[in-house]
Amino acid sequence: AQSVAQPEDQVNVAEGNPLTVKCTYSVSGNPYLFWYVQYPNRGLQFLLKYITGDNLVKGSYGFEAEFNKSQTSFHLKKPSALVSDSALYFCAVRDLGYNKLIFGAGTRLAVHP
Amino acid sequence: DGGITQSPKYLFRKEGQNVTLSCEQNLNHDAMYWYRQDPGQGLRLIYYSQIVNDFQKGDIAEGYSVSREKKESFPLTVTSAQKNPTAFYLCASRAVLAGDNEQFFGPGTRLTVL
After folding, report:
1. Would you give the DSSP letter of residue B73?
2. Which residues contact A60 (CB under 8 A, 6 or more apart)?
3. Which of A15, A17, A22, B68 has an alpha carbon within 20 to 30 A of B93's alpha carbon?
C-alpha cells in the first residue's frame, strides 16, 4: 500500500537558518509526491510536486524539495527560514489508482525570531 | 484558496441533527474530494467524486453522505449517525486530464457539535 511518513511532529528553527521538513514514502512503482502548507484555520496550499526528472524540485515561497529514490525520501527545504513560514506542512503521495492523495500526519514548523 | 468556496466557515450542530456543508468550485475540475482533519491525525478522506453523478467512499465514509448533481458542487451531509463529527472539514478539487495534477483546497468549515 502507498504511504507517507513525516517522522517529526514539530520542527523548530531560528529565523535566517536553513530548514528541513522530512518525508519518507512507500510506494509501488514510481512515486508522485507533493508538499502542501496549511496556515491556521485555512485550507491547504500547494507548494511543489515531484513527478519525474530533476531530483531537486523548486516550488512556491522559496521552498524546494529533494527526491532521493535510494532513501525513499522527499524532504522539504528552504535556505533561510522566515517567521512567516511557521505553519503546518503536509507531504502526500498519489495512490495507485491515480484518483487520490495519501497524506502524512503533518509537521508543525515553528520559526523563531 | 483558489476557486473553491466552502460555507459556512463555522457551523454548530446539536446532537441528533443532520447538517450539510457546501463546496463549490469554478475551476472546471472534474474531481472533487472531502477530507476531515483532526488534530495530530492529518487529513482523512471521506468521499470523492471523479465525475458528475458518481462518487466513491473514502477511508471514513460512515456517518456521511454526498451528492454530485453538478460539476461545480459537491455538498457533504454529516448525519446523526456520525458519532464524533466535531472537526475541520476540507473540500478539494482536481483536474483529471493528467494523473499528476495537484489538488486545490477550499478554506474549510469548522463543525462543532454542542
Report:
1. B
2. A45, A46, A47, A48
3. A22
Nearest CA in chain B to A94: B100
CA distances from B110 to A1, B37, B78 (A): 31, 10, 12
Number of helices and strands in chain A (H, E): 0, 12
Q: What is the pLDDT along chain A (113 residues), one digit of tens a residue?
A: 789 999 999 999 999 999 999 999 998 888 899 999 999 888 999 999 998 888 999 999 999 999 999 999 999 999 999 999 999 999 999 887 767 899 999 999 999 99
Nearest CA in chain B to A106: B42
* Residue-wise burial string across B94-108, b where 16 or more C-beta atoms lie within 10 A, e elsewhere: beeeeeebbbbbbbb
